[in-house]
User: Which sequence fits this backbone?
């Protein structure tokens, strides 16, 4: 089963866009930080996937910050369309978050 949900849709001021997008990114970074910490406590040989995801999320955060600053300086708004695809999978499969 697969479901697409519209999570973010609309026209935002730079401040609103920063609040929405940076909150989401910060929550994902926090999630992966806790996951990485738990893996380290459980086993010495973690695969590093959470650390890699944190690095990519931090890169995305810098991009969002640059876009927001540019929009603010130019007096622009940001249109954001964010859809989340949710797929139900068998319990035996490993799916990245």
Assistant:
């Amino acid at each position: 089963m697969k479901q697409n949900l519209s999570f973010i849709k609309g026209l935002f001021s730079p401040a609103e866009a920063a609040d929405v997008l940076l909150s989401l990114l910060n929550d994902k970074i926090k999630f992966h930080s806790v996951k990485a910490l738990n893996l380290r406590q459980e086993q010495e040989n973690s695969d590093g996937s959470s650390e890699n995801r944190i690095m990519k999320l931090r890169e995305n955060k810098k991009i969002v910050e640059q876009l927001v600053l540019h929009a603010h300086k130019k007096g622009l708004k940001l249109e954001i369309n964010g859809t989340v695809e949710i797929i139900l999978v068998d319990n035996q499969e490993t799916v990245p978050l």
